[in-house]
């Protein structure tokens, strides 16, 4: 190997390590998983976690990510030892994190790495995470939020803001019961379930096999596996894959009609109020007609962190919490920002039996 090749390899491996940290900070787990070889492994014995293969790394990371209030990782360069098409190395890490269940702390760790040259460039063959120092003392800081008064309601500029933690902390049992009672009073069916796994199983009871089902663009559905069950499982007449197969230039009317009136729509919401209102936000508005009433039946899966006291707080949650997270995702995936161009507020369900809300005791999604 000549000196120029060795320099190029070192630069690319260092860029690979930087990309890992950036993907972790931007909560872009598909991108992070793509940095590994197909059979690459991420091992964290101190946790303990062992993920082998890109799909395990993506899914495991998303489960971990859904538990964060905030997470900050700083990586410092370490050694790189080249050996033809393979290499080994170390990187040094400092992290600050707080989980939604209150666990928090600061740690210093080492990544022990093996790298592999591939047709796509250098990839991780293995990363082994070793904690060298851990401090679980309460962290004094918080994750900053956008300035007040940026919401759609002018009164928000002078209103007393809800604590930022209220947008990420799971609502306690008594609040969930209060929400469920308010939803039922408004004509919705409402159930309180332990977690996303229970909701995933409940969907199969609520939706008969062969029904036409449209899923909304939802992190909750994706992280829970419900999106995959519906759109690739073969149990239902999945609408979204059919929409994606239609040419948008020539089939716009067909797309519009197909999305507006399915048998079932399954989605999440940006917020649910203690007074029994559901708030959905959208950039294009394409999924809103089915949720509003076009679908014969609707099921909404709602993480416990989405409970807010009232409508004004719900709108602030959309602007200050959900939009920045969705904007970061859209920039990473599509290369363009997101926006709240359409809002749907469901205050009641006039058709008994049409709408079911599955309230989860855990936090999931935005």
Q: How much helical structure, as a percent, in the residues?
A: 25-40%
Radius of gyration: 23 Å
Question: What are the low-pLDDT stretches, counting only 5+ consecutive residues below 50?
Answer: 145-165
> How many strands appear in the DSSP assignment?
17
What does the average pLDDT come to? Answer: 88
Q: How many H/I helical runs?
A: 11
SSE string: HHEEHEEEEEHEHEHHEHHEEEHEEHEE
The coarse overall form would be: globular
Could you tell me how far the N terminus lies from the C terminus, measured between alpha carbons in angstroms?
A: 48 Å
Sheet of most strands: 7 strands, mixed
Task: Name the beta content range.
Answer: 25-35%
The class by helix and strand makeup works out as: alpha/beta
């Amino acid at each position: 190997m000549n000196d120029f090749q060795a320099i190029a390899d070192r630069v690319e491996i260092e860029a690979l390590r930087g990309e890992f940290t950036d993907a972790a900070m931007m909560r872009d787990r598909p991108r992070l998983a793509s940095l590994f070889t197909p059979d690459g492994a991420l091992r964290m014995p101190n946790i303990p976690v062992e993920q082998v293969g890109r799909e395990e790394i993506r899914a495991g990371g998303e489960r971990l990510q859904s538990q964060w209030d905030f997470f900050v990782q700083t990586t410092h360069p370490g050694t790189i030892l080249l050996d033809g098409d393979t290499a080994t190395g170390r990187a040094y890490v400092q992290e600050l994190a707080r989980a939604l269940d209150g666990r928090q702390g600061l740690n210093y760790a080492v990544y022990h790495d093996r790298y592999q040259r591939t047709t796509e460039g250098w990839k991780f063959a293995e990363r082994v995470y070793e904690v060298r120092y851990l401090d679980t003392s309460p962290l004094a800081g918080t994750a900053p939020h956008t300035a007040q008064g940026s919401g759609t309601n002018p009164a928000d500029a002078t209103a007393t803001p809800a604590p930022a933690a209220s947008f990420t902390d799971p609502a306690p049992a008594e609040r969930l019961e209060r929400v469920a009672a308010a939803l039922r009073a408004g004509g919705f069916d409402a159930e309180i379930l332990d977690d996303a796994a229970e909701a995933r199983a409940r969907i199969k009871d609520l939706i008969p096999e062969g029904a036409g089902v449209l899923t909304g663009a939802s992190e909750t559905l994706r992280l829970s596996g419900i999106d995959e069950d519906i759109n690739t499982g073969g149990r239902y007449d999945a609408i979204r894959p059919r929409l994606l197969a239609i040419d948008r230039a020539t089939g716009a009317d067909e797309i519009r009609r197909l999305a507006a009136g399915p048998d079932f729509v399954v989605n999440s919401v940006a917020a649910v109020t203690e007074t029994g209102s559901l708030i959905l936000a959208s950039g294009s508005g394409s999924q809103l007609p089915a949720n509003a009433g076009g679908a014969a039946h609707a099921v909404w899966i709602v993480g416990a962190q989405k409970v807010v006291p009232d409508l004004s707080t719900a709108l602030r949650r959309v602007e200050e919490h959900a939009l920045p997270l969705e904007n970061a995702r859209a920039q990473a995936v599509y290369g363009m920002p997101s926006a709240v161009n359409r809002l749907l507020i469901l205050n009641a369900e006039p058709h008994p039996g049409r709408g079911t809300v599955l309230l989860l005791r855990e936090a999931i999604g935005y």
